């Protein structure tokens, strides 16, 4: 007791604003359920596993810890399962799913000799008792962050409800015995409130649900509102009304009147169907991998180093699939696992390692690659709490702290909504590159980085070269290059015949285009005509030919398949297509050679000024929407190549500008606007005003990026000059490079109609076989969906 009293100055009573970690170790995935339990530092309130708590003592000198241990309790088999009523975790009405019940035990531990004192104990100093009580009663940071984002959207009143058109077509809906008018579906049926048609709902991403007849009916008729039959009771507020035009569940204040139009006495109906929100809850509760596993066969589970699953935190499969593939690359494996131990990461971390990206990447790497947590889960034997049995699955590790750090301040990744795996990969690479800016030779993001050079030749014969860096190669899919055209023609005939007879196609009758990956790569390099190109040699608009190539071949080449396109009317559509991907590819023919002997640069390009060069990816996507090429270039430049959305917003706001058709060379003669306050900020850091302006210009006005640009200017820039070199080898000398032969090592596939919904799964080639990583489920892949990839990861073959 005297030892504890002598260290009372190192004990703090938590305040409401303190972040308290008591669910997981900050540098491992140990929890109170782990064999050694968890030790909470009673000064910093950061938690450590048994093998790591002494590191914290050595670093901080904090000796007093609350030791938390959880032991599984034996519960009755017939304990009723609580049905969730709220799309939430860890809150009243949220998910329960009969998880095991644990009993907590506590004790005070004093380092370095691990002196143990019981808790509760009346002899303990009051300060210690108050501190421990506050820690126990508090909600841990881990759970707070998870619960905060799980909320269901509030319904709005439909704009169509008050003046909804209803046809006098004599339709009377019977009180029961409903069936889809287009198929045999008798559940998930929707009554259109305009014409009284009864049709089945949408097909879910996993194949369940309806056959899309209700939404297809809206596509033809534009009748916007439908109510789900089976959800209508005397309590009309509980009825599920959907607006196809507003693409949301809505409120119809006149629902009773609209139902009576079709002879429905709502007061006599009993609720038999789940609403959309309830079905969403049900699908989250009953998510079953067997619905989307390959060939409907059981997957042989795998355990050991490199075979650790990631727990789904709630729509986090985009993160899990991406990180599994990323950590299968040499660069990330070496940087955060082989070459950096947890001790080194912890010792170099700031006071709070939970917010340090380097520490959390190292923690995640060791969790995934060490095999420590890739073991069969255990369960208590019925009737005997002392006996346990191994199961055929692993529990996986929850990447909570990593997600919290990598998503910090990001408006999308910090939510619990589904996200685009491509966008997350690029965000990850950007953050890793920033984190390693002080020592770029150790930056694993460099293994994905390569140069792209675009060559423009106008009708004068003179040329221009634009260069940029990228981490992914985004490829269009040329459907006209499909290799199964005869089968597609036969399928279209069969489809027309069945439609004429009012019959439905079976899933095994559907034929999808098959496009070779090499044709997608050829499209990237193929010559492209650019109309209305302003030639500084001719001082007039003309037609130019654009070609593109790579100035370097990265260690790892990531190919993004543009499966999501915009149709007429800006309607997004996912291409239903297979990509034939070989095990190895050779892209040496895509190497760009730079300015060649005998070529003459366009006048402005021969002595380039400081203006930005439009990102051709942004220009191309805007051009596909119907905007003029020159306007697209201006939009990209004016928004500092920030992205398609920013450029499009600029275009919509500047279409009527008097100088919108002026050549870029004339428009950009004056220096672009730079916020004077940002210039002053950089000057206050001790930088020269000219350098500050150039840095802000090159970084799009971002002070943080501008500071990094000053300390680590791009390799083609010397003396703070933003002029890119005309030699590809000079610009890209610092980038990884080699021969353009690659082998496929992994893919991220997507199931669903949008990148922001559905499910992501990773397949990785490991130890001579394909392995599937589906959140916390890891197993041998019997039939990897290589032709259905969204992102493909290729490793360069050296030698």
UniProtKB/TrEMBL annotation:
CDD domains: Peptidase_C19B (cd02658)
Lineage of the organism: Eukaryota, Viridiplantae, Streptophyta, Embryophyta, Tracheophyta
Pfam families in the cross-refs: UBA (PF00627), UCH (PF00443), zf-UBP (PF02148), zf-UBP_var (PF17807)
Enzyme Commission code(s) on record: 3.4.19.12
Catalytic residue list: 317 (nucleophile), 759 (proton acceptor)
Cleavable signal peptide: none
SUPFAM superfamilies: Cysteine proteinases, RING/U-box, UBA-like
Purpose: Recognizes and hydrolyzes the peptide bond at the C-terminal Gly of ubiquitin. Involved in the processing of poly-ubiquitin precursors as well as that of ubiquitinated proteins.
Reactions catalysed: Thiol-dependent hydrolysis of ester, thioester, amide, peptide and isopeptide bonds formed by the C-terminal Gly of ubiquitin (a 76-residue protein attached to proteins as an intracellular targeting signal)
Residue ranges occupied by any UBA domain in the UniProt entry: 613-654, 673-713
Keyword list, A-Z: Hydrolase, Metal-binding, Protease, Repeat, Thiol protease, Ubl conjugation pathway, Zinc, Zinc-finger
Domain of life where this protein originates: Eukaryota
Boundaries of every USP domain copy: 308-797
PANTHER family tied to this protein: UBIQUITIN CARBOXYL-TERMINAL HYDROLASE, UBIQUITIN CARBOXYL-TERMINAL HYDROLASE 14
Gene Ontology molecular functions: cysteine-type deubiquitinase activity; zinc ion binding
All residue ranges annotated as the UBP-type domain in the record: 156-266
Protein name: Ubiquitin carboxyl-terminal hydrolase
Protein family per UniProt: Belongs to the peptidase C19 family.
GO terms classed as biological process: cell communication; protein deubiquitination; proteolysis; signaling
Residues annotated as binding Zn(2+): 180, 183, 200, 213
Organism (species): Sesamum radiatum (Black benniseed)
Keyword Repeat: yes
């Amino acid at each position: 007791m005297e030892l504890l009293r002598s260290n009372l100055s190192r004990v703090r009573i938590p305040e409401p604003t303190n972040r308290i970690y008591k669910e997981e170790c900050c540098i491992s995935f140990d929890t109170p359920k782990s064999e050694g339990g968890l030790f909470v530092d009673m000064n910093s309130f950061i938690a450590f596993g048994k093998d790591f708590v002494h590191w914290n003592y050595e670093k901080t000198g904090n000796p007093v810890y609350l030791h938390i241990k959880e032991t599984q309790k034996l519960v009755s088999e017939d304990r009723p399962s609580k049905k969730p009523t709220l799309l939430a975790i860890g809150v009243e009405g949220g998910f329960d799913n009969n998880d095991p019940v644990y009993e907590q035990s506590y004790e005070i531990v004093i380092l370095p000799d691990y002196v143990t004192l019981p808790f509760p104990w009346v002899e303990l100093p009051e300060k210690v008792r108050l501190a421990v009580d506050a820690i126990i009663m508090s909600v841990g940071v881990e759970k707070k962050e998870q619960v905060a984002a799980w909320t269901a959207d509030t319904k709005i009143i439909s704009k169509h409800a008050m003046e909804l058109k209803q046809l006098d077509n004599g339709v009377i809906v019977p009180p029961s015995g409903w069936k889809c008018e287009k198929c045999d579906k008798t559940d998930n049926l929707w009554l259109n409130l305009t014409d009284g048609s009864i049709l089945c709902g949408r097909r879910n991403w996993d194949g369940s649900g309806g056959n899309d007849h209700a939404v297809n009916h809206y596509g033809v008729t534009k009748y916007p509102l439908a109510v789900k039959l089976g959800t209508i009771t005397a309590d009309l507020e509980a009825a599920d009304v959907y607006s196809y035009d507003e693409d949301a569940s809505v409120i119809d204040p006149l629902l009773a009147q609209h139902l009576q139009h079709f002879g429905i006495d709502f007061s006599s109906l009993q609720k038999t169907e789940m609403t959309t929100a309830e079905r969403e809850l049900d699908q989250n509760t009953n998510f079953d991998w067997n619905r989307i596993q390959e060939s409907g066969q059981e997957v042989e589970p795998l355990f050991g180093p490199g075979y650790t699953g990631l727990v789904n935190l709630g729509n986090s499969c985009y993160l899990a699939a991406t990180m599994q593939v990323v950590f299968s690359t040499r660069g990330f494996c070496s940087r955060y696992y082989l070459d950096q131990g947890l001790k080194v990461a912890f010792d170099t971390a700031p006071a709070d390692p939970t917010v340090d990206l380097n520490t959390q990447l190292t923690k995640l790497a060791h969790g995934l690659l060490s095999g420590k947590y890739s073991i069969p889960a255990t369960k208590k034997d019925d009737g005997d709490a002392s006996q346990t049995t191994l199961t055929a699955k692993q529990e996986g590790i929850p990447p909570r702290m990593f997600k919290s750090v990598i998503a910090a301040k990001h408006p999308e990744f910090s939510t619990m909504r589904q996200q685009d795996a491509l966008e997350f990969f690029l965000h990850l690479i950007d953050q890793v590159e920033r984190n390693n800016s002080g020592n770029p030779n150790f930056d694993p993001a460099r293994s994905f980085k390569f140069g792209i050079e675009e060559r423009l030749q106008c009708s004068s014969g003179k040329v221009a070269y634009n260069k940029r860096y990228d981490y992914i190669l985004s490829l269009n899919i040329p459907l006209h290059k499909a290799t199964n055209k005869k089968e597609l023609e036969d399928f279209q005939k069969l489809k027309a015949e069945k439609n004429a007879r009012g019959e439905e196609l079976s899933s095994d009758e559907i034929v999808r285009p098959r496009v070779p990956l090499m044709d997608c790569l050829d499209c990237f390099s193929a010559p492209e005509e650019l109309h209305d190109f302003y030639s500084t040699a001719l001082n007039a608009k003309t037609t130019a030919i654009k070609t593109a190539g790579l100035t370097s071949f990265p260690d790892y080449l990531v190919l993004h398949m543009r499966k999501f396109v915009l149709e007429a009317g800006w309607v997004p559509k996912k291409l239903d297509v297979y990509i034939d991907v070989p095990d190895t590819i050779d892209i040496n023919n895509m190497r760009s050679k730079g300015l060649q002997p005998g070529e003459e640069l366009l006048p402005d390009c021969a002595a380039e000024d400081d203006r930005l060069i439009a990102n051709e990816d942004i220009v191309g996507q805007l051009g596909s929407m119907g905007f003029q090429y020159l306007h697209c270039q201006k939009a990209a430049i004016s928004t500092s190549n920030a992205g398609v959305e920013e450029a499009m917003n600029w275009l919509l706001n500047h279409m009527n500008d008097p100088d919108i058709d002026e050549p870029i060379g004339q428009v950009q003669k004056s220096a672009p606007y730079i916020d004077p306050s940002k210039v002053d900020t950089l000057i206050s850091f001790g930088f020269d005003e000219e350098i500050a302006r150039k840095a802000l210009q090159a970084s799009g006005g971002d002070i943080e990026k501008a500071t990094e640009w000053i300390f680590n200017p791009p390799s083609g820039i010397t003396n703070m000059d933003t002029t890119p070199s005309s030699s590809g080898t000079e610009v890209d000398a610092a980038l990884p490079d080699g021969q353009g032969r690659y082998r496929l090592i992994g893919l991220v596939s997507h199931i669903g109609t949008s990148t922001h919904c559905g499910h992501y799964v990773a397949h990785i080639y490991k130890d001579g076989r394909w392995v599937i990583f589906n959140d916390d489920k890891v197993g041998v892949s019997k039939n990897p969906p290589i032709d259905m990839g969204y992102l493909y990861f290729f490793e360069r073959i050296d030698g």
